[in-house]
Amino acid sequence: MVDSKRWSPELEGLRGLASLWVLLGHICLLVQCRIPLLYDPGMGVDLFILLSGYLMAKNYQERREKEPWNSPDTFRKFWLRRFFRIAPLYYLLLVVALIFGSWFGEMRDIIASAWPTTATASSRYADHSAMNIFSHLTFIFGLLPAWSFRTVLPDWSIGLEMQFYLLFPFIMLLVMRYGFAVSATLLMVVCLAARWLFPDYFNAFPMPSMILIKLPLFIAGMLISHAVMQKNLRYCALALLAPVIAWQMHIAETHLRLVAECMMITGMTLLLWQPDKENRLRRITAAPRQLLTCRFSLFLGDVSYSVYLLHLMIVLPTIGLLVRYTGFAHQPSLMRFLIVTAIALPAVWLIAVALYHKVEKRGIALGKQLLSGTEMKSERSIS
Fold this sequence. Notes:
Elements: H1 9-31, H2 41-62, H3 72-99, H4 101-114, H5 130-137, H6 156-197, H7 199-203, H8 211-230, H9 234-239, H10 241-249, H11 255-273, H12 280-292, H13 295-302, H14 304-325, H15 333-382
């Protein structure tokens, strides 16, 4: 069991911040309110990716004595935990997304009629083909450009996450053999090389749902974890290569995002560093740490996964119905943003709380039951 003293409550606040960034960013995009940084919800997803890499590496290292990295049983336990953390809520909302896909597509067309620059192929929301359903149930859709962006859910990143989980134990075997610095550098070079060797495959993705596109950021999160655990800033400096690699790959990367990602990596490291003694760093980070660990921030962290998966199912109809039945489209852009936020945000949070307690927590508990059951069986067989 992971020592609870090593748990960093700031992580929950950062997850909550990431979910809020994505939600508000999508509202900005859909109503064409160009608030700097917030207008790019992809950066909120990048923060989620950094946090995922950080948490996976942190937990894996802390469990190393009980769960050796080179044991197949460790692989099985890791994959089982991650599946039951992600899949139950995802499958539930996937069913809803498929059933009401045509309606979500209609709402999306209404929004595009008001702001043509936001238009997308709304027919993808209503794709009930066997291949679309199969690829999403098996999480392989993120590797298939034609199926990687075919529901109302922002699930391109869920497929991406599952690909990272699949690779993660093997990445840690590489780390065990060569260390974090060499392994991280090697993997980032492989990603960059693959981009230039297979440009058509990379360019075919409407969203960066294939693991090699975003693996450098996952690796950066892992390096932040190691920098914090080893109290060695050189690993943070190496993590700053990840945004540069992503920018060189030219996949939805801009100079603004490059700077923002570098700031996120540096900020995460400073927030999670936690010096043993009172010093200037502790004083500088005290205020943001308090903000990220307050009760509201921890609440946002708890419901962040539900908020992330659910929010477009609320935001799209809210904007679509406002455009259809009111003079909403003629309001100033900031007013449009504030109106949608005031309506959608409480609804998303309310439903997300129910999903967190009724689906997420029960899914995690089921995974733990299965793990404990298999552990008891293996102990009996040994005895």
